[in-house]
């Protein structure tokens, strides 16, 4: 992670102070203490102390909880810092009193002593860092969970020197073992889930961050992909001075994205959010390669209103079929084709073998309808309360379809490579809530997604390749009821009612002919005017005559079908 700003001396820390056993028991005791305090405050405490329901008291509780979590994450370092960064960005879920304290984890992590940085650099290159970078600052510009960044210069160019902490690889390995143990206990005692798959993906992503050569490759790859996008900046890697534990890049001036000016109600959209969301639409749906850790400390908004991405230790990739499946889900959700959404979920591997598809289709319908109502009824998408989410309404719905949350969870499984894509979405939602709490990430994503979907890179081939074809049906104005009949027949859910099908077929036949008549009428008028302006009266009157002929046929068709409609028994 790298952020720009004025570095100040801070109290240093070192990961060499505590062993793995201490870290495990310290983490375990902290987690269970906080679970108990939350349960007491919101469940038992309210019974004995009515004042616990007051807003001021709750705000104080969350502020204390946030400060405790911040201090714990800072003391543990490593993987726990990343967890705190993620929680601190969920301002759309947690109150500001909780998330404000966690913002320190973005760019104020206590640095390690400069002697440790010198040690790591020496082990990488066999040289003293002060001889390679004579003007390097001893006080880091930024410090993060796995490395810290110092400012130096090369040939008059300001550069950022990122160096891994000594022993960070071993620390992460031990922390990941502890996390596996936590996940295993949750799976055994609370609820069943695919904890091994989750742990494997976390392990792959985090251990990748300890190889800065891979990060350098990701910088170069992303710069090439966005070469034609002038609104985005990806720092250049200085290869001769970079290695497995050291990465040197050009230094980008700017501010953390969440320090940009937030928009007020009624104002135009936030430019930083527009740039951020559009970048992820391109990364995921066009390039299929994305930055997997977009917390605010890794997003720099420059003076010339460009967006700079830094810290490519965590990246994700998508294959073509997974991207197609995601497009299918979004297209079908827009078209309210719930069967298509479930089919798309199956395509990405989110459904278990025992999944009840019809029941899931009802869940999808309910969820999308609820989301639509929620967005329509909500003016401020920040610090949302449980009352706004209406969990009681959810329980009633599950009862109606003779299901339970536990059963739904059994039908769903975590698709491969999707854990961190979900995290990215959570971070995007959180940043949007900070800079523009009056709009959702959907408001920002619709325009770039539609532009990509109809562009040459994108996408009209996609709706033509899947069985649902909702967008094509709407574009051709097929009557909605007829389309649903065809869908249900195709899916074996409805018998063929010949009279209904015949009526709709005739309606389509008539509409098709009327459309052709109207087209010939317009073409005749166009070419009639074209030749008339050039003094070619014979040709022009020929086209005008053709236009008039088809105009009369169109009028007759309207009149004839109107009489038939009146004479048709209802």
Sum up the structure in keywords.
alpha+beta, four-stranded antiparallel β-sheet, four-stranded mixed β-sheet, 10 strands, globular, disordered N terminus
What is the total tally of β strands? 10
- List unreliable stretches of 5+ residues: 1-9, 456-483
The termini sit apart by 69 Å
User: For the CA atoms, what is the radius of gyration?
Assistant: 30 Å
Q: Label the structural class.
A: alpha+beta
Main sheet summary: 4 strands, antiparallel
Q: How would the global form be characterised? A: globular
Q: Enumerate the strands of the largest sheet in spatial order, edge to edge or round the barrel.
A: 1-2-3-5
Q: Tally the helices: what do you get?
A: 24
Secondary structure layout:
Blueprint: H1 20-48, H2 55-76, H3 79-88, H4 96-102, H5 104-107, H6 114-125, H7 129-132, E1 142-143, E2 147-154, E3 157-164, H8 168-189, H9 195-208, H10 212-225, E4 232-233, E5 246-250, E6 255-256, H11 271-287, E7 289-291, E8 299-301, E9 307-309, E10 315-317, H12 320-334, H13 338-347, H14 357-377, H15 386-389, H16 391-400, H17 405-411, H18 419-435, H19 441-454, H20 461-465, H21 470-475, H22 480-490, H23 498-533, H24 537-567
Helix pairs in contact: 1-2, 1-8, 2-3, 2-4, 3-4, 8-9, 11-18, 11-19, 12-13, 13-14, 23-24
Provide an overview of this structure.
The chain has 570 residues and is of the alpha+beta class. The protein has a domain at 498-567. It is built from 24 helices and 10 strands. The protein has helices spanning 20-48, 55-76, 79-88, 96-102, 104-107, 114-125, 129-132, 168-189, 195-208, 212-225, 271-287, 320-334, 338-347, 357-377, 386-389, 391-400, 405-411, 419-435, 441-454, 461-465, 470-475, 480-490, 498-533, 537-567; strands at 142-143, 147-154, 157-164, 232-233, 246-250, 255-256, 289-291, 299-301, 307-309, 315-317. Strands 1-2-3-5 form a 4-stranded antiparallel sheet. A 4-stranded mixed sheet has the order 4-9-8-6, with helices on one face. Strand 2 (147-154) and strand 3 form a beta hairpin. Helix 2 (55-76) runs antiparallel to helix 3 and helix 11 (271-287) runs antiparallel to helix 18 (419-435). The radius of gyration is 30 Å and the shape is globular. Mean pLDDT is 78; it is low at 1-9 and 456-483.
